[in-house]
Amino acid sequence: MRTVSLTHLVGLVSACLAVGVLVGCSGQAGAPASEGAPLAVLPVGEPSTVTSSAQVVRPIDRYLPSAEQVLDLMQANENLVSTCLASVGAEAMVFPDRSEVEPFFTESVRNRVVRSDLWDFFDTESVATRGYLYPVGFDSFTIPPLPAQAVGACGDAYQALIDSMGYVYISNLPDGGPPVPREHPTYRAAVTAWSQCMAQQGFDYADTADAIFSDGYNLEETPSPRHLATAAADVDCKVQTNLVGIGLAVQSAYDEAYIEQHHGALVQYSDDIDARIRAGAGG
Question: For residues 241 and 233, what is the distance between their CA atoms, to the nearest angstrom?
Answer without folding.
Answer: 12
